[in-house]
Amino acid sequence: MKKYAFLTLSILALLALGACSDTDxxxxxxxxxxxxxxxxxxxxxxxxxxxxxAENDFAxxxxxxxxxxxxxxxxxxxxxxxxxxxxxxxxxxxLQRGREMAQMDPVQLxxxxxxxxxxxxxxxxxxxxxxxxxxxxxxxxxxLYGAPxxxxxxxxxxxxxxxxxxxxxxxREKDIPTYQNPYIPMTKSWRGVLRFVVAVVVDGGAGxxxxxxxxxxxxxxxGLASAGADGMIFD
Length: 235
What we know:
56% of the residues lie in helices and 0% in strands. The chain has ten helices and no strands.
């Protein structure tokens, strides 16, 4: 489907953006001039994953069932917001992209999509933050170093990553991965330092890279990539 063809481009492509505000829209939803709440990609991502995992563990389903379920969930959100639905082929492409990204070096993945200046902010933050305290550390770093520029790749990455960390911290709290990313030291827990948490990095990177499609599409695609990565890690 042509509308979504650009979403399957390499994560290395730097696309046009739009995302969280300097006043921490990640955690405090802003309003527009009509006093209507602004929807963020992170919120859509969380909604998507909550719906997808509501009945049972998505990673444990048959692959054919995964595509069908993910397509239904994605289109429920897209259609509600007046957007064109995705085909099963589109959804499978994004799930597979997440699986492939889960096998990449998470540090190099982020380095490939951020500018050198943005990378300084991310490195400082991601070395300190862990899955369970990512939002708290984010606020601290905004206070100390200033919030990421609204509309930047970094702000989109953080919007998706923080939402992802919050979801997986709860859902995978007691689960042990069946797959180890070869680029992550074996001593690193999947819930450890944020820069090494594959599902979070994949989610944030995929969502940020397709931000030109708007927060709804960005949130759904980021969620699909994260679900694909999760299937690799906890299958």
